[in-house]
Amino acid sequence: MTEPRRRTAILISGRGSNMAALLAAAAAPAFPAEIVLVFANRTDAAGLDTARAAGIEAAALSHRAYPGREDFDRAVDAELRARNVDLVCLAGFMRVVSPWFCERWLGRMISIHPALLPSFKGLDTHARALDAGVKIHGASVHFVVPELDAGPIIAQAAVPVLEDDTPDSLAARVLRQEHVIYPRALQLVASGRVRLEAGRTVSEARTSADVALAVPDA
């Protein structure tokens, strides 16, 4: 008997390029996650129209209408639960979610960060990587925990840092790999092959089909 697809929401703030990659992957009937909602904290987020064009329900609430971070997060939680959401993907969601929301969705919420965690947590990762002189940079998908960018890692992609790189050129190279590993990470979590357990990422299998590291040629 085929396992039911996990009902998944994507949270965005802008154009949602990673959202588009997730939507494309989930369009395959065999993909273990079904995108049932794209939600934004900005009513003018461009990604909402992208979702609607793909036939996905899109909704938004402005965080500015709420007195505090947790108040907004509780409203978001109500939207998710009204649609029986199982999993949450943060994809360019430019909000630090409250500890309450993290605990509510612990083990069921993942995010992508444009750096090889635990290095370069926070903002301006590409410029900071260049300033640090690293030779390898990349992206990480991780479970969301209350501490920013500190959740257990699910998947990573590494790219070389080139001598003539700028923050923009490096960001573009990393973004292409984000679009590869984020759908892969969602597939692993939605299928149950990867889970959060006792503060660690636990994998049920380590086969060639479960590779969670992408290293492009260039």
From TrEMBL:
Annotated keywords: Purine biosynthesis, Signal, Transferase
Listed EC numbers: 2.1.2.2
- Gene, per the UniProt record: purN
Which Pfam families did the record assign?
Answer: Formyl_trans_N
Segments forming domain Formyl transferase N-terminal: 7-186
Site described as Raises pKa of active site His, located at D149
InterPro entries tied to this protein = Formyl_transf_N (IPR002376), Formyl_transf_N_sf (IPR036477), GART (IPR004607)
**In the UniProt record, which is one GO cellular component term?**
cytosol
* Binding site residues for N(1)-(5-phospho-beta-D-ribosyl)glycinamide: G16, S17, N18
Q: Name one GO biological process term.
A: 'de novo' IMP biosynthetic process
Family under the similarity heading: Belongs to the GART family.
Q: Where does (6R)-10-formyltetrahydrofolate bind?
A: R69
Q: Which residues form the signal peptide?
A: 1-32
Q: Which organism is it from?
A: Lichenibacterium ramalinae
A Gene Ontology molecular-function term?
phosphoribosylglycinamide formyltransferase activity
Q: In which pathway does it act?
A: Purine metabolism; IMP biosynthesis via de novo pathway; N(2)-formyl-N(1)-(5-phospho-D-ribosyl)glycinamide from N(1)-(5-phospho-D-ribosyl)glycinamide (10-formyl THF route): step 1/1
Q: What CDD domains has UniProt attached to this entry?
A: FMT_core_GART (cd08645)
Q: What domain of life does the native source organism fall in?
A: Bacteria
Function summary: Catalyzes the transfer of a formyl group from 10-formyltetrahydrofolate to 5-phospho-ribosyl-glycinamide (GAR), producing 5-phospho-ribosyl-N-formylglycinamide (FGAR) and tetrahydrofolate.
As its record notes, the protein acts as a catalyst of: N(1)-(5-phospho-beta-D-ribosyl)glycinamide + (6R)-10-formyltetrahydrofolate = N(2)-formyl-N(1)-(5-phospho-beta-D-ribosyl)glycinamide + (6S)-5,6,7,8-tetrahydrofolate + H(+)
Q: Which residues form the active site?
A: H113
SUPFAM superfamilies the record matches:
Formyltransferase (SSF53328)
What's the name of the protein?
Answer: Phosphoribosylglycinamide formyltransferase
Q: Which PANTHER family match?
A: PHOSPHORIBOSYLGLYCINAMIDE FORMYLTRANSFERASE
